[in-house]
Amino acid sequence: MKKEPIYIKIEQDIIRSIALNELRADDQIMTEEQLCKKYQVSRMTINKAIVSLVSKGYIYRIPGKGSFVKYNQVSKRIGGGTSFTQDMIARGIKPGSKLIDYYVKRGKELPFIRDRLKLGDDDLIHYFVRLRTGDGTPMAISYTYVSGDCIPAMDLNALETSFYAYVESLGLKIKKTEGEVTSKLPTEEQQKILRIKNEALLVNTHATYLDDGRIMEYIQTYYIGSRYGFSYVFHRDVKVP
């Protein structure tokens, strides 16, 4: 029986450590020099294992720093109508939410948001910022504006779990969302909160409508591009001959 190449064993050992959570997202794996000493092989053999792990999406390399565990990217279907919490649970990932900031303003203090929510100058607007995590790893940061006409008083404890579950507990029914996805580079504050460098963020901006036609929220969520993606399905109604 042909003996399995040593680089495959090294590759499988690292994959096993990731699967057992001995190595987590963004953890640095052993250096090539350390792996050479551990397995008593040449740097060429180690490099072959590393290149294979990169191509399969298990790790990523930063020149001059080393190799790191890559987070298994979550793909959200555009138009699917699912929340961040539902997206995480569907993939066996534990969702998390940390409230960073909260305050209440009048419509006249936030004219842009007032117009988006179709409110008046004296209507209340709830504003809160939350860090969203998956298995404790930062995934996104969201900036949310909620109509005081739809939700007069806010339970801040609900903002550290699923906001949409809280909305439903109030007897409100979400009908649809309308928005767009763009990309931006993070601000220094976002880099600090998300614990990233100058990595591209996917920005999902949308308005959420209730079944009675009112606009409940206007929200911008900045997802870490390497950890979160968007997918879609297009159906062609007209048959092409």
From TrEMBL:
UniProt GO BP: negative regulation of DNA-templated transcription
Domain of life: Bacteria
Record-linked CDD domains: WHTH_GntR
HTH gntR-type domain residues: 4-72
MF-aspect GO terms: DNA binding; DNA-binding transcription factor activity
Entry-linked SMART domains: HTH_GNTR (SM00345), UTRA (SM00866)
Keyword Ion transport in annotation: no
Keyword Transcription regulation: yes
Any one Pfam family match given in the protein's UniProt record, by short name: UTRA
SUPFAM superfamilies listed in its UniProt record: Chorismate lyase-like, Winged helix' DNA-binding domain
Keywords attached to this entry: DNA-binding, Transcription, Transcription regulation
Xref: Gene3D superfamilies: Chorismate lyase-like, Winged helix-like DNA-binding domain superfamily/Winged helix DNA-binding domain
InterPro entries: Bact_HTH_transcr_reg, Chorismate_lyase_/UTRA_dom_sf, Tscrpt_reg_HTH_GntR, UTRA, WH-like_DNA-bd_sf, WH_DNA-bd_sf
Stated name of the protein: GntR family transcriptional regulator
